Amino acid sequence: MLVVNKRGVERVSDHDPGPEAARWTSKYGSVTFNQYGRDLPSGGMNEAGLVIELMWAEGSKYPRPDARPAVGCLEWIQYQLDTARTVAEVIESDARVRVSADTPLHYLVADREGGVATVEFVGGKLVTHTGATLPFPVLANDLYSDALRFAAKTPSPPADSRSSSRFLRAAERVKSYRPADDPVAYVFDTLANVAQASTQWSIVYEIDRGVVHFRTRGNAKTRTLSLADLDFSCASPVLVLDLGSGDGDVRPLLAPYSRAENLALIRSSFGQTEFLKGVPQAKLERLAARPDAARCQERAIR
Questions:
Q1: How far is the C-alpha of 8 from the C-alpha of 248, rounded, in Å?
Q2: Contact 34/265 with Cβ under 8 angstroms?
Q3: With 0-12 CB in 10 A as exposed, 13-18 as middle and 19+ as buried, what is 272?
Q4: What is the dihedral of CA 104, 206, 189, 166, to 10 degrees?
């Protein structure tokens, strides 16, 4: 489900509820791609041009409990898109909130100023690669340091589907890009080159223009959405889109969010994810209802 998230929304983390829960108000509106329900995105872009995407990464280890309030590993993405404008601000937020989760993930972050970084959690601490420590601005499913070691000893990118091979092929594609190339088409071709049998979607963010393009496994047509065409004010309803629908500009297809649609998505995704199949239905219903508690300053968002 694609979600148009609003600025000015007061949120309270559901990961660790109580008086010490993480609390924030969104500074920026955003468009997110949500597999496990609203407010729990797998990636997206905000109106300031910050983009975050996640990938699985075995070996990840999040911080132990401390004085910082906790957010979940998907909730962390929403927190950043709500509050951060740049890669530097994302990294600095580690002083204020920590990620608490069992799912091993790492993140690729980019901004409109040209900043790019990997964000990983190794040995319970935030580890980033950016600038000179990020020779290849790509990420697959290996920790970045492991991917670099593979790249250093591998003269040409293998054609197999191993994470390290896909990382190296993506890196070569970045190096081979020329200004005369159509950037959107080039990135879609790159994503096709590194796709796996399990790949469900391919997303291209034109950060400078604030435009999102995407294709899905069940609908190979390219869909496009410009953030400039969206109303991010709290006075307007939250809008969503079934990612299987549409062709071309999908702005006219956006429809008001409903809890029933959210619950249907959560039940479907949890039921098809091996390590989440056993989550009780009562918890799924609570997750689906959770966004109803979000408040837009003086009035509830519906």
A1: 30
A2: yes
A3: exposed
A4: -20
Domains of the chain, start order: 2-300 (3.60.60.10)
At 293, list the tokens.
Answer: 């508690």
| C-alpha pair distances (Å), 288 with each of 34, 178, 239, 267, 284 | 12, 45, 16, 9, 6
Spatial CA neighbour of 29 closest among 253, 206, 202, 210? 210
- Tens digits of per-residue pLDDT, 198-239? 999 999 999 999 999 999 999 999 999 999 999 999 989 999
Q: What is the pLDDT of residues 26-58, one digit of tens each?
A: 999 999 999 999 999 999 999 999 999 999 999
Asked if residues 138 and 191 have their Cβ atoms less than 8 Å apart, the reply is: no
3-state secondary structure 181-199: CCHHHHHHHHHHHCCCCCC
Q: Phi and psi dihedrals of 38, rounded to 5? A: -60, 145
- Please name the helix (run of DSSP H) or strand (run of DSSP E) that holds residue 296, with its range, or none: strand 295-296
**Cβ within 8 Å of residue 144, ≥6 positions away:** 106, 118, 120, 129, 134
Element housing 167 (H / E): helix 163-176
pLDDT digits (tens, 9 = 90+) for 182-200: 999 999 999 999 999 999 9
pTM above 0.85, yes or no: yes
Structure tokens belonging to residue 89: 């601000």
Give which of 118, 123, 119 is closest to 59, Cα–Cα: 123
Q: Could you give the CA distance from residue 227 to residue 50 in angstroms, rounded to a whole number?
A: 12
DSSP state, residue 24? E
